[in-house]
Design goal:
By secondary structure, the protein is α+β, with helices and mostly antiparallel strands. The protein is built from 15 helices and 10 strands. It is 50% helix and 11% strand. The strands form 3 sheets. A 4-stranded antiparallel beta sheet has the order 1-2-3-4. Strands 7-8-9-10 form a 4-stranded antiparallel beta sheet, with helices on one face. The longest helix is centred in the first third of the chain and has 34 residues. The relative contact order is 0.14. This is Iron-regulated membrane protein. It comes from Zhihengliuella flava. Pfam families: PepSY_TM.
Length: 455
């Protein structure tokens, strides 16, 4: 088996590192930057995020009054509609009054930051997603995701995520085969020059992180991500969501402000935010980090959703009838299936929010280790060439494989390629190019150059 598995792993590791390395490098650099942005964001947007009057422990004003102040700021701006409210989660922080607009990108809102005690407007910014990322963090996130090129740019990150685990496992195979071939007394010491030892050791230590980031990163990708979604749906691993449907006889028109309290007295839409939030707290909303959304359309309930992404995870949600203030549906994180919980934790761990600052530091360190691995890999490739970049490891590994080995490799490549389309297409391109280079009749010297060990 060593006569073909080792050379195959070496050649695959070489080509993947050579051609996919730049994509992994960009993803790692932007990922390391994004990992620390939650902390950096607090320093960049101190004015918007801090509430001096609230820091002095004054009386918090009702949400209706805070919304009224924000509405005054937004008065006269066409196309903006009140979309959600995030009450100040803790002492010294601001409330976010969030507005939608047709010109905003998907998941974006225009937020007005209000001191909940003094009702001072502390600023306005465009925020993104459940994380509420402010412009600086959003810019890093979008560049990490698609290089700022929109949907076509997502191909780069999908390529990086599709190949990262292949590169990592290929490196592990080389490391294991290298250790097995050494004498027992030297088994614990990788051989080779210093850069090679560092590349091997760093790769082994970063292996689990690479596999994790590759798997979770693929869930956001365009093509492989769709397959992941379909697979989760087929296996019943989807994340449950609260139902906002109301019986037709009880449906309220959210644009009319025609909700009523338990005494039958009419409430304004702003007043309803306070009432709906109180209704949610009476059931299972036990954290102050929440988002309150009015009904999206007539016949729908309002929702109160916990958005605490650090551990312990709090993402419970309730649907509240705005007419009766009755909770008509609820979803608790405790009731999630195990796969759904793992998916939630995996996403939050990938984004650096699950364990706060510690998560940010570890994630940034892991991403920077990928940067070092890519740079070291290119340095080794260049250094091993006699008068330029080193040649590829010897071809023809599969010609020495038994029939079952050939079937296993080709079957695995085909299966993975179907599930990860960009991996399959790029692998096919590698095979074609490699075949042309290996067997081209115009090559003067077709003698293979033995590959130096990466370990």
């Amino acid at each position: 088996m060593r006569s073909w598995i080792g050379p195959l792993a070496r050649r695959l590791h070489f080509y993947a590192g050579l051609f996919i390395g730049p994509f992994i490098l960009i993803a790692a650099l932007t990922g390391a930057t994004y990992a620390v942005m939650p902390t950096v964001e607090k320093a960049l947007y101190t004015t918007e995020l801090s509430a001096p009057a609230y820091q002095e422990a004054g009386t918090v004003q009702p949400l209706s009054q805070q919304i009224g102040v924000a509405d005054e700021v937004m008065a006269g701006r066409e196309g903006y509609a009140l979309a959600a409210v995030r009450p100040a989660p803790e002492l010294g922080t601001t409330t976010r009054i969030m507005y939608s607009h047709p010109d905003l990108e998907a998941s974006e809102s225009h937020a007005v930051f209000v001191d909940p005690v003094s009702l001072e407007v502390r600023g306005q910014e465009t925020v993104y997603g459940t994380s509420g990322a402010l412009p600086a963090r959003t810019a890093i996130s979008q560049f990490h995701r698609h290089l700022g090129l929109g949907e076509p740019g997502r191909l780069y990150s999908e390529l990086a995520a599709s190949w990262l685990w292949i590169v990592a496992l290929g490196g592990l195979a080389l490391w294991i085969l290298g250790r097995a071939s050494r004498r027992k007394k030297r088994a614990s010491r990788p051989r080779g020059h210093r850069a090679s030892r560092l590349h091997a050791s760093l790769g082994v230590w970063a292996l689990l992180g690479a596999l994790f980031l590759s798997a979770t990163g693929l869930t956001w990708s365009a093509h492989a991500g769709a397959n992941v979604t379909d697979l989760r749906a087929a296996l019943g691993w989807t994340t449950p969501s609260v139902s906002t449907g109301l019986p037709a006889a009880e449906a309220a028109d959210p644009s009319s402000g025609g909700s009523v309290d338990s005494g039958g007295e009419a409430l304004t839409t702003a007043d309803t935010f306070d009432a709906v939030w109180a209704a949610g707290r009476d059931v299972n909303i036990d954290t102050d980090l929440v988002e309150i959304k009015p009904a999206a359309e007539a016949g729908s309930a309002w929702t109160v959703t916990e958005i605490q992404r650090h551990y312990p995870t709090k993402v419970d949600s309730v649907a509240v009838d705005p007419r009766t203030l009755e909770v008509v549906d609820q979803v608790d994180f405790a009731d999630y299936s195990v796969p759904a919980k793992l998916a939630r934790w995996g996403v939050d761990l990938h984004m650096g929010t699950l364990f706060g600052l510690a998560n940010e530091v570890v994630l940034a360190g892991l991403a920077l280790s990928f940067v070092a691995l890519v740079i070291l890999g290119y340095a080794l490739w260049i250094k091993r060439g006699a008068s330029g970049p080193g040649r590829a490891p010897r071809a023809g590994a599969l010609t020495r494989a038994p029939w079952w080995g050939l079937v296993l490799v080709l079957g695995a490549a085909a299966g993975i390629g179907v599930f990860l389309p960009l991996f399959g297409l790029s692998l096919a391109a590698f095979v074609v190019v490699d075949g042309v280079l290996a067997w081209a009749p115009w090559r003067r010297d077709r003698r293979p150059t033995p590959s130096a060990e990466l370990t």
